[in-house]
Amino acid sequence: MNKWPDLNLRRYTHILVNIDQSAIFVQSGHIISVMDPGRHRIDPEELPILGVLAAEFCGGDYYRAALYFVPNYPLQKYDSVEGSETSPIR
After folding, report:
1. Which of 15, 19, 73, 86 has its CA 20 to 30 Å from the CA of residue 41?
2. What confidence tier does 9 reach under pLDDT thresholds 50, 70, 90?
3. Is 66 exposed, middle or buried (0-12, 13-18, 19+ CB in 10 A)?
4. Is the pTM value of this prediction over 0.90?
């Protein structure tokens, strides 16, 4: 997981979401929006909820939200070693 380095996202910034990731916008601990893989422009047409927040809090030039790039592939689970459940430890 990677995080955008700044909480202020300039309006009309282009972001590139890799094929194996999703971009998640978080504000005050709540997920505001999720973007699928591809090239996106951060603007009110693509993210209407961010447009409202920008106009209300930042004068319309910046969006204030944390942006995380999260992998969307299944993570491997390492909770058991193969064969350890059936054979006793001696």
Report:
1. 73
2. confident
3. middle
4. no
Residue ranges per domain, the chain? 2-71
Give the model confidence (pLDDT) of 21-67 as tens digits.
999 988 888 888 899 999 998 877 766 666 555 545 555 677 778 89
AA identity, residue 37: P
Cβ atoms of 35 and 41 within 8 Å: the answer is no
Please list, in sequence order, all residues whose beta carbon lies within 8 angstroms of the beta carbon of residue 4, skipping any fewer than 6 positions away: 15, 66, 67, 68, 69
Q: In 3D, which of 10, 30, 46 has the Cα closest to residue 68?
A: 30
Lookup result for tokens 């390492």: 78
**Per-state percent for the chain, helix, strand, coil, to nearest 5:** 10, 40, 50
Using CA atoms, how far apart are residues 27 and 76, in angstroms rounded to an integer? 29
